[in-house]
């Protein structure tokens, strides 16, 4: 296993119930939330995509990599992104 230096901090706000439930799931796998979040971020940085498909009424079905669908969704929420850079977002 490659050791990675940890030289930055991420602070996030989230729903208390989500945090509690996620901590229980992570704990059941022998992980703390910090390790679980690190694993998530490493995975998306390696693959340049989410390791799952968001579902539910709050997530429209735009996760099919169709730039026009993404552009239409972005326009509907007031963003000017045309969707052509999907998957090529700046990771800095």
From TrEMBL:
Q: One of this protein's GO BP terms? A: regulation of DNA-templated transcription
Q: Which residues form the signal peptide?
A: none
InterPro entries xrefs = Arc_rbn_hlx_hlx, RelB/DinJ
Question: Among its keywords, does the record have Oxidoreductase?
Answer: no
Sorted keywords for this record are: Toxin-antitoxin system
The top of its lineage is: Bacteria, Bacillati, Bacillota, Bacilli, Lactobacillales
Q: Which organism is it from?
A: Levilactobacillus koreensis
Q: Which family does it belong to?
A: Belongs to the RelB/DinJ antitoxin family.
Question: What name goes with this protein?
Answer: Type II toxin-antitoxin system RelB/DinJ family antitoxin
- Please provide an example of a Pfam family that matches this protein in its UniProt record: RelB
């Amino acid at each position: 296993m490659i050791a990675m230096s940890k030289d930055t901090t991420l602070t996030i706000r989230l729903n208390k119930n989500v945090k509690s439930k996620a901590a229980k799931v992570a704990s059941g796998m022998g992980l703390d939330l910090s390790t679980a979040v690190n694993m998530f971020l490493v995975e998306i940085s390696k693959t340049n995509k989410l390791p799952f498909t968001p579902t539910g009424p709050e997530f429209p079905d735009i996760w099919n990599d169709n730039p026009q669908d993404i552009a239409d969704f972005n326009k509907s929420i007031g963003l000017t992104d045309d969707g052509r850079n999907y998957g090529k977002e700046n990771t800095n």
